[in-house]
Amino acid sequence: MKFSLKLLVAGAALACGLAAHAAPIVIKYSHVVADVTPKGKAALKFKELVEKNLQGKVEVQVFPNSQLFGDGKEMEALLLGDVQIIAPSLAKFGKYTPKLQIFDLPFLFDDIAAVDRFQASPEGQSLLTSMSKKGIMGFGYLHNGMKQLSANTKLLTPADAKGLKFRIQASDVLEAQFKAVGANPQKISFSEVYQALQTGVVDGTENPWSNTYSKKFHEVQKYIVESDHGVLDYMVIANAKWWAGLPPDVQKGLKAAMDESIAYGNKAAFQEALTFRDKVIADKKAEVLPLTKEQKLAWRTAMKPVWQKFEGEIGKNLIDAAQRANGK
Ligand code: LMR
After folding, report:
1. Which residues of 211-220 are buried (b: 16+ CB within 10 A; e: fewer)?
2. Ligand 1 atom nearest residue 211's Cα
3. Who lines ligand 1 at CB under 6 A?
4. What pLDDT digit, counting tens, does each position of 60-92 carry?
5. Ligand 1 centroid to 277 CA: how many Å?
6. How confident is the model at residue 246 (pLDDT cuts 50, 70, 90)?
7. Residues 233, 120: contact at Cβ < 8 Å?
8. Closest Cα to atom 2 of ligand 1
9. For residue 327, what pLDDT is reported?
10. Which residues contact 220 (CB under 8 A, 6 or more apart)?
């Protein structure tokens, strides 16, 4: 009797010891941009906060620069459980929900503050759960910034783009946008853009300042026009089934860390967009050209028919809500 009690106590102590040293839950957070960009910073902040608040319980591994998965594969990897968190550009969700195509409509948003207001609106928030049937849950939106057009020729008017090849993200709206000005768009993974520009596979591209600078696109493009013609933002997402299987206290800690990391990345996006622009200018590799009001209006007029083409898929109510977010 005495012996078995001792055994029981020893067994319980061993079990407690094992529980205390249980392997942490490992979260792989994969993305395609550099650590210095808003998305790169948000991912590292998430790691820092999680490992502080859920010490020993959760380990976060961040893989930037398409190290783990490029943008053609990361969604598939998320759904297969090979990675737990990703933050694709909103342009890359077309296959999963046509509604998110709204963010690619050219000249829909006046600036990033308008994008922010739309994302915070009931219509914007509803899009975070628009892919739940596909097994994807959205934590929130993360900003990068407004896109600029670049090429080896000056893109001052829409006619200047005619016949040129442009690299685009995997988005049918962006394809239509460049076709609207007589250009030839090509869907190419982010990790291949520098080489495509350098070797002349394409003549130009569009990206926000932080991506242009951190990936050195300005070193292989002669001119960048300050077109601000569209937005490049992200949704931070997880595999819904994986999330549902986490213990409630871990979910709570992760959600709090995610909210704080997104706020941190968004603040950086607002504060640093112009810093990256200035760095591109200071490098003197590409010439940065402002557009006059008239030139910008000509681009807008040429690209705007794209809205109508996608209105049926996106929904007029969403487009109206986005326009209401302008000029407040
Ligand atoms: C791109 O492919 O240009 C962007 O979506 C990359 C990114 O994640 O910012």
Report:
1. bbbbbebbeb
2. 9
3. 32-33, 71, 89, 144, 169, 190, 207, 211, 232
4. 999 999 999 999 899 999 999 999 999 999 999
5. 17
6. very high
7. no
8. 190
9. 79
10. 194, 197, 198
